[in-house]
């Protein structure tokens, strides 16, 4: 049995609400869905989201990488030799983590389908329900408070507040959200690299002094400033979560060595897929760091894979997997769904995706 075809599908799906961070504003999910087909006609799917401002990945770049390099080396190979195939993908090209993640996930999906088990079972887990937070896009204090009340009414108990666009007003934003939702809802902050180290310490200490009960602060400073990240971590009590600072194992080793953060956010499109993500989770756990599994703005394909990972491996903090919740419609048939604040994995082989909404995507053989 061999891999007989590698196909890519360009997807641009609208969001029901604009998504705004310190780095960007978007109204769509733009992504590349990769499809691997075996000689029996079964398909496995993976996803490479376009995130210019975070990973530098683009749909066009991922598609070129898959068509010109990763795909040709998979044709005619045995999809059941999963560890070898995934290792070959990681070695094949420098960078291009999103493209590698798409192929890695598609290989895992295909392997699970061939065994007739959900992806989570292939990864060693059994649960089909994974709690998630939900993001409050960056905005003014009044709008954030209103959004927080609505998300609380939607059933979300963990809110991720985007800050970092205006350090002088961020304390008031957090105060407004806490007042809106009361003490029973957890609030975490994501500055998306938007603060200087001094701004980060000033804002976080202000939050601590005001007793606003923030669970964690994600990536307060620019990704390359590990000294600054460590400086902030040393001066505040709120746990610091490294996100953009950690793409792969070498990045995480440096964060551990410098004691620069308390937790790490593992994302498939940053690290290259499920195979390296498991290594990052194991490494973080071995060194006493907390873990979160998150995502870029991506579809049910990527979220399904990340949620399967969480269901099998677990994390120390609630996952950050609300990205597909923002979509106005799904570009795939089947796959995960949301039940309030829970990602529900399908009890079906692989990712449970039967195909794509072909009228809404561009396919390339």
Entry summary:
The chain is α/β, with parallel strands linked by helices and 365 residues long. It folds into 2 domains: 3-116, Enolase-like, domain 1, CATH 3.30.390.10; 123-355, TIM Barrel (Alpha-Beta Barrel).
List keywords for this structure.
TIM Barrel; four-stranded antiparallel β-sheet; seven-stranded parallel β-sheet; Enolase_C-like; Enolase-like, domain 1
Secondary structure layout plus pairing:
Elements: E1 3-20, E2 25-38, E3 43-49, H1 59-74, H2 82-92, H3 97-115, H4 119-122, E4 129-131, E5 134-136, H5 141-153, E6 158-162, H6 167-181, E7 186-190, H7 197-209, E8 214-218, H8 226-235, E9 240-242, H9 249-258, E10 263-267, H10 268-271, H11 274-286, E11 290-294, H12 300-313, E12 332-334, E13 337-339, E14 342-344, E15 353-356, E16 361-364
Parallel strand pairs: 5-6, 6-7, 7-8, 8-9, 9-10, 10-11
Antiparallel strand pairs: 1-2, 1-16, 2-3, 4-14, 12-15, 13-14
Helix pairs in contact: 1-3, 2-3, 5-6, 6-7, 7-8, 9-11
Instruction: Give the structural class.
Output: alpha/beta
Measured between the Cα atoms of the first and last residue, the distance is 20 Å
Strand order of the largest sheet: 5-6-7-8-9-10-11
Q: Nearest-angstrom radius of gyration?
A: 20 Å
- Overall, the morphology is globular
Write down how many β-strands occur, each being a DSSP E stretch of 2 or more residues.
Answer: 16
Following the backbone from N to C, one meets helices and strands in this order, namely EEEHHHHEEHEHEHEHEHEHHEHEEEEE
Number of helices: 12
The CATH topology of the largest domain is TIM Barrel
CATH architecture of the largest domain: Alpha-Beta Barrel
* Top-tier CATH class of the largest domain: Alpha Beta
**Low-confidence residue ranges:** none
- Helical percent range? 25-40%
**Main β-sheet description:** 7 strands, parallel
The CATH superfamily of the largest domain is Enolase-like C-terminal domain
Organism: Micromonospora ureilytica
Domain Mandelate racemase/muconate lactonizing enzyme C-terminal: 141-239
GO molecular function, one term: magnesium ion binding
Enzyme class: isomerase
């Amino acid at each position: 049995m061999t891999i007989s075809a590698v196909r890519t599908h360009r997807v641009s799906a609208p969001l029901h609400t604009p998504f705004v961070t310190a780095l960007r504003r978007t109204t769509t999910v733009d992504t590349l869905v990769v499809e691997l087909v075996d000689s029996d006609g079964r398909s496995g799917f993976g996803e490479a989201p376009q995130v210019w401002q975070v990973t530098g990945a683009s749909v066009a770049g991922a598609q070129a990488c898959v068509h010109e390099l990763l795909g040709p080396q998979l044709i005619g190979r045995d999809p059941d030799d999963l560890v070898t195939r995934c290792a070959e993908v990681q070695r094949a090209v420098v960078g291009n983590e999103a493209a590698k993640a798409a192929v890695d996930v598609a290989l895992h999906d295909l392997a699970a389908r061939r065994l007739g088990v959900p992806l989570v079972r292939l990864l060693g887990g059994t649960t089909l329900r994974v709690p998630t937070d939900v993001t409050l896009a960056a905005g003014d204090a009044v709008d954030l408070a209103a959004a927080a009340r609505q998300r609380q009414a939607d059933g979300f108990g963990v809110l991720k507040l985007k800050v970092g666009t205006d350090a002088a007003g961020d304390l008031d934003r957090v105060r407004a959200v806490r007042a809106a939702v009361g003490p029973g809802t957890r609030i975490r902050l994501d500055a998306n690299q938007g603060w200087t180290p001094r701004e980060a310490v000033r804002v976080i200490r202000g939050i601590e002094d005001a007793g606003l009960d923030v669970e964690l602060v994600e990536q307060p400073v620019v990704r390359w400033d590990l000294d600054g990240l460590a400086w902030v971590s040393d001066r505040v009590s709120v746990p610091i979560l490294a996100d953009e600072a950690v793409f792969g194992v070498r990045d995480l080793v440096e964060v551990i060595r410098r004691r620069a953060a308390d937790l790490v956010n593992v994302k498939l499109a940053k690290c290259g897929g499920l195979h390296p993500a498991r290594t990052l989770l194991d490494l973080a756990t071995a060194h006493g760091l907390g873990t979160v599994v998150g995502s870029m703005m991506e579809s049910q394909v990527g979220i399904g894979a990340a949620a399967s990972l969480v269901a099998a491996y677990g994390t120390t903090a609630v996952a950050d997997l609300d990205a597909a919740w923002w979509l106005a419609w799904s570009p795939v048939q089947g796959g995960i769904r949301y039940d309030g604040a829970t990602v529900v994995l399908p009890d079906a082989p692989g990712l449970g995706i039967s195909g794509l909404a072909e009228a809404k995507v561009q396919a390339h053989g």
